[in-house]
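Re: weekly structure request thread

Next one in the queue (184 aa):
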Amino acid sequence: MRGYFGIGVEAISKAMNVGNLLRSAHSFGASFFFTINTSVDVRQMSVSDTSGAFDHIPFYDYQKPADLIVPRNTSLVAVELLEDSIDLPSFRHPKQAIYVLGPEKNNVSPDMLSRCDYKIKIPMKFCVNVGVAGAIVMYDRLISMGKFADRPVHEGGPAEHFDPDKLREDQIVVHRKRQFVPKK
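Done, posted below.
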């Protein structure tokens, strides 16, 4: 898969949820993981992170949303069940993205939302566990941006082996370039 992504949480309070998300981030190939304004003890997170992610991907801890460093040409994406959020199945993931999820019983903060380029939601009746939500978003990114064969019309898998190096021109997606404007 081309590009990169980071994923993290804001104002989360349950160490097991963060550890679960961190383990999934490691499994899905996240470039980094972060927390913002959290009271979670890192040692407690490692209890549910059985993959040892701290030894494999960078971890950043920020005090407030303004502290989050967003690299040039990278889109910040809030995962939030809001009326004006884009439904995940209709969302084209940016090649370079940072995903942020909110706390267990609240939303991503207004300060963080104001920094985001996109808001996406998983179309469901109510919110699920933050670790599950993050895993769904990362899986959707993988299947929509990875080099996989199209799903067959019939049930089951593709009829033949898929070679990602033999993509037709119409199968290659070119993402928009985001112009970098320095903040004053």
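The chain is about 25% helix and 20% strand. The chain has one domain: 4-145.
Next request, please.
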